[in-house]
Amino acid sequence: MQKKRWILPESMESEMANQLMSAINVSAPIANILINRGITNFEQAKEYFRPSLEMLHDPFLMAGMEAAVDRLVNAIGTGEKILIYGDYDVDGTTSVAMFYHFLSSFYDHCEYYIPDRYKEGYGVSLAGVDYAEENNFSLIITLDCGIKSNDLVSLASKKGIDFIICDHHEPDNVLPPAVAVLDPKRTDCPYPYKELSGCGVGFKFIQAFLLSHPDIGFDPFSLLDLVCVSIAADIVPITGENRVLAYYGLQKLARDPHPGLAALMEVAGIQQNDVTISRVVFGLAPRINAAGRLEDAKYAVRLMLATDAEPAQNFARQLDGHNQQRKDIDRLITSQAHDMILENGWTEANTTVLFQPDWHKGVIGIVASRCIESYYRPTVILTETHDGILTGSARSVDGFDLYSALLKCSDLLEQFGGHKHAAGMTLRNENLEAFRSRFEAVVSSEITSDLLTPSIIIDTRISLDDINPKFFRIMQQMAPFGPGNAEPVFVAEDLIARDVRAFSARNNPDSNHLKLRIGQYGCTSTFEAIGFGMGEYADQLKKNPQGFGMAFAVAENRYMGRVSLQLYIKDIRWE
């Protein structure tokens, strides 16, 4: 197991914690968790524990919203053909499905368009503009893309095609010449919340349109299951407005999801009474993404637009099959990547840069993330597209600015784009070795040993006697969990291990997990604890069963009709 850094909060302001404990009648660990999230008084706690749709901001606060609504109204009034254009990932496809559900419910002259990942690439494409021109579309509404498509928006304008752009990515200094650009990250946009998903921006557009035209009779909140899937899959912060949208979106998934999402939840084994952000991320998102990775992202849109159970189930099984195929390819390439690192003696490097000409372009980003799980360092995985041109996906480790490092290698790249955590690039084969060497040198000169060690963010120290059903019920009310509102992680010390054993999962004999009973000096409570992939700790715990510390999360375990609290181990140390 890799050694991990435990990052504990600075010493708690006990007076503040005591005041919060008294104000909302919670225990010290709960108060500390809330303070870590910036919640220090009764009113903030009330908003946090009781999200309300009334907390959503006025959509007309977003720059460009009035112009966007006016242009859509004019298009509908004159019977123009409208093309709903979105990216091929989960955020893009949920956005397109959401907007098409809305617009097609009262307007017939609309279609949707998803670019081909391999033929057209990300964002607005020339092929997409040509399609609009050939089929007499005079308005294109982009979702989750378009903010940097200045040239193509300008070209479309000359062809008599207007754009309304709904995006959430960082804009350049000069915005595209669209009729309206909706992006809360615009420097001139006063919208109070900046972290909406692309689907979230599209939702605010729908909300604004319906506020000005209530006679349409469409309920925008009926779309929140799609918005929730986009928020979860795009890893945007679960804070502010996103937290409200995700909270009610999860309720929609649990009670009355769109038929396509209901069918996909069924094939993913997700119970409607137990839907969480994590289950959406690991159960629904990979299946939706698999369509664009291996086939055509339009399959995912068709699933989400299905109105009857039978076609929805057929589409869901199709996406599930694509995802299984994706996993098989992912496993093979990940295995080959590990072998390449070992064979070339690159285990001690500060970066990973790997290339094979026949690796599948649709999974190299996943493989980069898999390599980081094992070696924890900035990673680039490359494959060949044509005629000596390589394309790659890069992923970083927490705290290291990947984009800045690639900028210092830009003379060796044909093009690149992305952000601190992830990027894409193309380069010529003859520059591969020079890039590998330069990237290693740049990262080595800037990265610290701490950043090369995975970290665990700890919320608070805790006694095992503090963990009880009431404590867990309050903790559950902190959900939905995700970036910016992570599931609480605790540290307990002076622990005692009993009944230690390693075991393998039935469906994976190569797995190696850990199970034990945990007690603590001075406490009466004991808990079953499980550590996935941590079976190698079993021998050490048997030899040294006392006086260790453990980082863990708390969850419910349901087995044979019995419900108990269980600890999910993050790390163990004897220091």
TrEMBL record:
<dbReference type="Pfam" id="PF17768">
    <property type="entry name" value="RecJ_OB"/>
</dbReference>
<keyword id="KW-0378">Hydrolase</keyword>
<dbReference type="InterPro" id="IPR051673">
    <property type="entry name" value="SSDNA_exonuclease_RecJ"/>
</dbReference>
<dbReference type="Pfam" id="PF02272">
    <property type="entry name" value="DHHA1"/>
</dbReference>
<feature type="domain" description="RecJ OB">
    <location>
        <begin position="458"/>
        <end position="571"/>
    </location>
</feature>
<keyword id="KW-0540">Nuclease</keyword>
<keyword id="KW-0269">Exonuclease</keyword>
<feature type="domain" description="DHHA1">
    <location>
        <begin position="353"/>
        <end position="444"/>
    </location>
</feature>
<dbReference type="GO" id="GO:0006281">
    <property type="term" value="P:DNA repair"/>
</dbReference>
<comment type="similarity">
    <text>Belongs to the RecJ family.</text>
</comment>
<dbReference type="InterPro" id="IPR003156">
    <property type="entry name" value="DHHA1_dom"/>
</dbReference>
<dbReference type="GO" id="GO:0008409">
    <property type="term" value="F:5'-3' exonuclease activity"/>
</dbReference>
<dbReference type="GO" id="GO:0003676">
    <property type="term" value="F:nucleic acid binding"/>
</dbReference>
<dbReference type="InterPro" id="IPR001667">
    <property type="entry name" value="DDH_dom"/>
</dbReference>
<dbReference type="Pfam" id="PF01368">
    <property type="entry name" value="DHH"/>
</dbReference>
<dbReference type="InterPro" id="IPR041122">
    <property type="entry name" value="RecJ_OB"/>
</dbReference>
<dbReference type="InterPro" id="IPR038763">
    <property type="entry name" value="DHH_sf"/>
</dbReference>
<protein>
    <recommendedName>
        <fullName>Single-stranded-DNA-specific exonuclease RecJ</fullName>
    </recommendedName>
</protein>
<dbReference type="GO" id="GO:0006310">
    <property type="term" value="P:DNA recombination"/>
</dbReference>
<dbReference type="InterPro" id="IPR004610">
    <property type="entry name" value="RecJ"/>
</dbReference>
<feature type="domain" description="DDH">
    <location>
        <begin position="81"/>
        <end position="229"/>
    </location>
</feature>
